[in-house]
Amino acid sequence: MKVRIGIAQTDKLVELEVDSAEDFKKEIEGAMQSGGLAWFTDSKGRSVAITAANIAFVEMEDAAPKTVGFAPDA
Q: Taking the model in full, what pTM does it have?
């Protein structure tokens, strides 16, 4: 699943690939409640730290392949 995290007062956008949407949601909610520093590790092993107060938004997108064409789905 693709996740985009917007950073407040900048045009910075952090993009991550995560394995579990539910685990990520719990992690981001915990970080927002504590108000501290949130560390995120994506499915490729990259780590990013963001201050919870600077998170403007979190957008989650299913990484399912999109089909193009006129053939019916199988």
A: 0.73
Q: Tell how strand 55-61 and strand 2-7 pair up.
A: antiparallel
pLDDT in tens, the chain (74 residues): 899 999 898 888 888 888 888 988 888 888 888 888 888 887 778 888 888 888 999 999 886 666 676 766 65
Closest C-alpha among 64, 62, 17 to residue 42 = 17
Q: Does residue 35 lie in a domain region?
A: yes
Q: How many structural domains compose the chain?
A: 1
For 1-74, where are the alpha helices, taking DSSP H only? Answer: 21-34
Q: What is the CA radius of gyration of the chain?
A: 15
Place of tokens 């719990």: 26
